[in-house]
Amino acid sequence: MITMPWLTQTPRRAVDAAIGAYQRHLSPRKGFTCAYLAADGARSCSAIIRTLVAERGVLGALLPTLRQFVACGRAASALRSGPQAAQGICCCGGIPIPFKF
User: How far is the C-alpha of 66 from the C-alpha of 1, rounded, in Å?
Assistant: First the structure.
């Protein structure tokens, strides 16, 4: 059987590079932190998803990525409605991003 590792490695590397660029260039300028990171204190969604893609590949990471975004949305809701509503957080929704340049 002929194997073509580039079929799985190329998309994985492309997604890894895109997430890495986001983490280095966009995330520091957006003006808020990941709600999941703010609530959980462990890792941001982008870090978790980058690990998922590295371990499972792009297709294998799709469902866990969706679950992560749902968890992030729930964390954002909890942080906004808690006794001391947090400011400067965002989940991966359709919210305008105020970049700082």
Answer: 34
Chain-centre distance of CA 30, in angstroms? 14
Q: How far does Cα 66 stand from its chain's mean position?
A: 10
Distance CA 22, CA 16 (A): 10
- Please, are residues 64 and 56 in contact by the beta-carbon 8 Å criterion? yes
Q: 96, 39, 95, 100: which is closest to 72 by C-alpha?
A: 39
Evaluate if residue 51 carries a pLDDT over 80: yes
Alpha-helical (H) ranges within the chain are 6-21, 35-40, 45-81
The pTM of the whole model exceeds 0.85? no
Phi, psi of 18 (to 5 degrees): -65, -45
